[in-house]
Amino acid sequence: MITIAQRLQFEDVFPDEKKEDVVYYIKKVSKETLLRTIGFCNTNPTTNFDNFFTNPTLQDNIFEKVIRYSKKNNIKEKPILISKYASLKLSEHILAQKDLLEEPISIDEDELNLFKAFLVINTELNNNQKFDNLNSDNFEKLVDLTLTFKFPESDLALFSNDDLEFLKLIYTTIYKVDELFKFLNSNDDFVELKVEFLKSFNTDSEEEFIKHMKFLFGKLLESKITKNYTFEVDDGSALNFLKSMSSENIKIDEDFTILKNNPIYFLEDNLFSIVNYFFAVDKFYRSTKFKLKEIYESKESLKKKYGNFFGFFNKNFSEDFLMKNLLDDIFHKKYFVKKPDTEKELDGEPDYYIRYDKNIFLFENKDVLVSKSLKSSGNIDDIHSLLESKFVKDGKKSVGIGQIINSIQEIQDKKFRFDEGVNSDKKFTIYPILLIQDRIFQSPGVNYRLNDWYRSMAKEKLGTNYDKNYIKGLTVIDIDTLIFWAPYLKQKDRHFKEILIDHLKRMETHKKINASTEQEAFYRTNKNLMEQLGSISSRKIPFRIPTEDFVQMFKEVIVD
């Protein structure tokens, strides 16, 4: 379940004690404890104020302090000490320090100073969030609060138990890396890009890269099960591969940029651990874009022929290769009506279009970058501005939702240029879909907010042609979810439509709260809020990737 909980901060537990900065407390903890804490927090996300300490007396003392604070401030839900975000921030501070304490003073001192370091980080995170301009409407205020809390963390995991999300990330990353290599192999112009990209991982061939990547993924999956956060490697080639993802020059950054590029750290020469499971997997696709950009920018011939990197990558790969190949595979049957292929894209042309029976699925693809300052700002105005400029209108230019509404207008006016079959007297049900390449936009509240804007814009522009029964709400779906669900979507033609209908119903339905106690009302309100604001990727479907299919993806590293 997606949850929002209060972060426990320094003043809550130690109101009469002077608060120092994070580094002050880190320097009082032994180096070995600090380095192992990074991996431990990854594998034990349930660690909290009530199970943090080894010494029972110290644990009881801290527990009483938190309970006293909670009662005094009428806090119903259990506060949290360690969030994924706080754990990363502590990891960054630890790895950025060169002068760490070699020998521990005592276990109690180590644990108490670590505890205080987490509290200081939580204080800083809480202070960064700004609530000045939240919507005055009670429900819309909750939407704003959810966006403010969850958006900065959504490139990690949406759920407190992230096991399925992690499995999905590995599955989809392998798929996307495979597609990326197919793309780079499809044109002689891209050979140098591929060769230099492989060298950046200390590998000489695509086969060697894939083998080491999948071996690491296998180790990470094993770690998830066993809770063991250290890994030993003896193979020299594998060791060089891992070293390409490690650095001793870690610096504090508001979006963990250096940690994302270096998600591996070494405890000993052959013993390593990871900063974050998601960062380690993202290194192979999500972070790849920036490595490819660096290489691309050094090739004048590529820039001259294809223009700026992001224009090239987003159009040539993300849209025309990755998205098109995936959707063509899902909607592969001959009776699906698609827009005709043209040499040159026409103005206002949908990125992808499917008609089946009396249903139309309109896709707009968006591969959007989010600035690190905005991601970490916790400012609702900044988040709204980003969503509007990237998905609604950029200056005077319609993008995303604006383009979708223009296509709907053409269909309603019987002047659609890309499928003559809809320019008849028949009534068609239209399902608008915003396909995004980055999972951060599956953050709770994003689809709800964009759908709210889309509905208002559609009513205004379409006028009497607007019919809610035939023009459905906006679904925002990420490419990873489509990849993960593809086998299920291909089983039955109706599956995709059924998932969309279920998601839209949950998102657009306000439920009344009936409860006998305040605590029950709070629980149900939170549950209903997360149900309504949840992304389509958080919806449960009656399908799981067969184990044999998943295992087959690791055929290069499985030893009989």
Q: How many domain units? A: 3
CATH topology tier name of the largest domain: Restriction Endonuclease
CATH architecture of the largest domain: 3-Layer(aba) Sandwich
Low-pLDDT segments, ≥5 res: none
Across the major sheet, the strand order is 4-5-6-9-10
Query: What is the 3D shape?
Result: globular
Distance between the termini: 38 Å
> How much β-strand is present in the residues?
5-15%
Class inferred from helices and paired strands: alpha+beta
Overall residue-averaged pLDDT value: 89
Annotation, overall tally of beta strands: 10
Provide a descriptive summary of the structure in words.
- The chain has 560 residues and is α+β, with helices and mostly antiparallel strands.
- It folds into three domains: 119 residues, no CATH class; 143 residues, no CATH class; 236 residues, Restriction Endonuclease (3-Layer(aba) Sandwich), CATH 3.40.91.
- The chain contains 24 helices and ten strands.
- A five-stranded mixed sheet has the order 4-5-6-9-10, sandwiched between helices. The protein has a three-stranded antiparallel sheet with strand order 1-3-2, covered by helices on one side.
- A hairpin with a 2-residue loop joins strand 7 and strand 8.
- Helix 8 runs antiparallel to helix 10.
- It is globular.
- The chain starts with 9 loop residues before the first helix and ends in an 8-residue tail after the last helix.
- 35% of the residues are buried.
Can you summarize this structure?
By secondary structure, this protein is of the alpha+beta class. The chain has helices at 10-13, 22-26, 31-43, 56-72, 84-96, 107-128, 138-150, 163-185, 191-199, 206-226, 236-243, 257-261, 277-282, 288-296, 300-306, 309-330, 372-375, 380-391, 401-412, 446-462, 479-491, 494-508, 518-533, 547-552; strands at 231-232, 264-266, 271-274, 337-338, 352-356, 359-366, 393-394, 397-398, 429-436, 475-478. It is built from 24 helices and 10 strands.
